[in-house]
């Protein structure tokens, strides 16, 4: 795959002279095309709803069908391309992302709101994933093991799966698609990619980058739209593998369909992650950790800290210090220097946050800061919400149990380490947890006893690194991991080969090295 693909890249965007808002397209069968119906939806800047980023095709089952047909052709070609050559394309993708990092971070902040520092990090996570994937092209190991028979070889190796359905959320518009698509591609699969309708611009640029790096055009298909597109992907008989990141509710529906159709499915879903701070902790560190974990990305991460479990001895001091710091967080347009917290993604997510503030009040939790829409200084133009903390939250209450996906932190007071661990584990989710302590024994107990896919010691619940497995237990996932080495198992099928060069029939389990008994 030495030469860049010959595709007309700039036509991802079609300039319509009559309107200032650019119109973008799907990428299907090697061409940038509108939806069959011509319908579009708007991509709106959540920090200023008068700013329309672009119009994107409102697609459905027909576009998915066309995409799958093309992807089948792409799969035939790409699956026969040597894996190291596939890895080389990914290395070039990494290089282009490095060169375009600032541009992509800017457009990402404009369409989904998180501050530039964070969108730069999002692109960096894609870069890290690309370079890791590039080296995996030379490391898709199988095993050669001794056969129980003479003059016979036994080995396992990997084959690609086919056309992969990739359905991604708004909160990591570049990183999460790269987590899924880079390993899928290195393993030799083709992808039909449906990004969240809130972040179609980043997705479009991402596909442009893949093509610029030399990915054969049929290997990737981009289909914009809402739930109908995702549903059509999940139910398509020629898509044997689906990877989804999003809500537990949607994941369940996807799981039902994939179960009936015997599809391979990876789910990354909700979280209700806790930071535990024990009496012996470094409190400065703990305050910094929870500020970043709870209010970074406006609380819209699966890994966000939404519960703060405090041991009695430090409870009052920590809450006081935290509230002071939270009140000085600067809300605003993420592209402005000095912004700490951006808006929520859309009106519905802000209504959901408001609903949970109400639930918290009714459940008798004490609102210590925030709780309202943020207004003034231009904030009325977007979906801003004050960073919010409830204290005295009761374990088992809805506020404590349910995922909010917004800047709302619930503080729970406990007496002992055992109690803290029990609170951490007593939710239906299990993505990440954090424990702040100076006691090495407690730290190792936490690693062993907390029911999460990831546990941090003296670091916040967010910030997983691209080269380690990422995922959660219980209703956060379905047993798979993204990132690191494990994800390559998901995107490849293990096959076993036996080569018998003895020239005679050798019967396994019968004519073995012990000799035939009779
Ligand atoms: C997510 O919120 O779905 O660990 C992913 C983190 C990031 C990824 C979050 N690296 O917070």
Word description of this protein:
By secondary structure, the chain is α/β, with parallel strands linked by helices. It folds into two domains: 203 residues, Aldehyde Dehydrogenase, Chain A, domain 1 (3-Layer(aba) Sandwich), CATH 3.40.605.10; 185 residues, Aldehyde Dehydrogenase, Chain A, domain 2 (3-Layer(aba) Sandwich). 36% of the residues lie in helices and 20% in strands. The chain contains 15 helices and 23 strands. The strands form seven sheets. It has a seven-stranded mixed beta sheet with strand order 16-17-18-15-14-20-21, sandwiched between helices. The protein has a five-stranded parallel beta sheet with strand order 11-10-9-12-13, with helices on both faces. A three-stranded antiparallel beta sheet has the order 7-8-23. The longest helix is centred in the N-terminal third of the chain and has 21 residues. It is globular, with a radius of gyration of 25 Å. The N terminus is likely disordered. Bound molecules: 2-aminohexanedioic acid (UN1).
């Amino acid at each position: 795959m030495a030469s860049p693909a010959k595709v007309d890249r700039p036509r991802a965007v079609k300039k319509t002279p009559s309107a200032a808002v650019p119109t973008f397209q799907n990428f299907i069968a090697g061409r940038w095309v509108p939806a069959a119906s011509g319908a579009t939806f708007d991509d709106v800047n959540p920090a200023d709803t008068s700013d329309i980023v672009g119009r994107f095709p409102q697609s459905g089952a027909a576009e998915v069908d066309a995409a799958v047909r093309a992807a089948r052709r792409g799969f035939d070609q790409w699956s026969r391309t040597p894996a190291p050559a596939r890895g080389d394309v990914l290395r070039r993708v990494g290089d282009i992302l490095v060169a375009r990092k600032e541009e992509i971070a800017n457009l990402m902040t404009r369409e989904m709101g998180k501050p530039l520092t964070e969108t730069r990090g999002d692109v960096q996570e894609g870069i890290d994933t690309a370079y890791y994937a590039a080296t995996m092209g030379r490391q898709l190991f199988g095993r050669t093991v001794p056969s129980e028979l003479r003059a016979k070889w036994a080995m396992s190796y990997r084959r690609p799966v086919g056309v992969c359905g990739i359905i991604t959320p708004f909160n990591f518009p570049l990183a999460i698609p790269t987590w899924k698509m880079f390993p899928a591609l290195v393993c030799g699969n083709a992808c039909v990619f449906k990004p969240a309708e809130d972040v179609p611009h980043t997705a479009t640029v991402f596909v442009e980058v893949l093509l610029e790096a030399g990915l054969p055009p049929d290997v990737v298909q981009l289909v914009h739209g809402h739930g109908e597109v995702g549903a059509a992907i999940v139910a398509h008989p020629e898509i044997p593998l689906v990877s989804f990141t999003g809500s537990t509710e949607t994941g369940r529906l996807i799981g039902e369909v994939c179960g009936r159709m015997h599809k391979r499915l990876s789910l990354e879903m909700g979280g209700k992650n806790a930071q535990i701070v024990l009496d012996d902790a470094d409190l400065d560190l703990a305050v910094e950790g929870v500020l970043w974990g709870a209010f970074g990305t406006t609380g819209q991460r699966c890994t966000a800290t939404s519960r703060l479990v405090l041991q009695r001895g430090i409870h009052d001091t920590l809450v006081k210090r935290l509230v002071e710091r939270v009140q000085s967080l600067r809300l605003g347009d993420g592209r402005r220097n000095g912004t700490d917290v951006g808006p929520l993604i859309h009106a519905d997510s802000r209504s959901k946050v408001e609903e949970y503030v109400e639930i918290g009040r009714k459940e008798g939790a004490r609102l210590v800061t925030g709780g309202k829409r943020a207004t003034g200084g231009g904030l009325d133009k977007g979906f801003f919400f004050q960073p919010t903390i409830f204290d005295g939250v009761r374990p088992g209450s809805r506020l404590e149990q349910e995922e909010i996906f917004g800047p709302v932190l619930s503080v729970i007071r406990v007496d002992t380490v055992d109690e803290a661990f029990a609170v951490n584990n007593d939710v239906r989710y299990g993505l990440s947890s954090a424990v702040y302590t100076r006691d090495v024994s407690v730290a190792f107990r936490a690693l062993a006893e907390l029911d999460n896919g990831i546990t941090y010691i003296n670091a916040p619940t967010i910030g997983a690194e691209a080269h380690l497995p990422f995922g959660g237990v219980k209703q956060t996932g379905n047993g798979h991991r993204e990132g690191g080495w494990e994800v390559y198992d998901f995107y490849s099928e293990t096959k076993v080969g036996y080569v018998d060069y003895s020239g005679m029939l050798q019967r396994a389990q019968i004519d073995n090295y012990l000799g035939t008994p009779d």
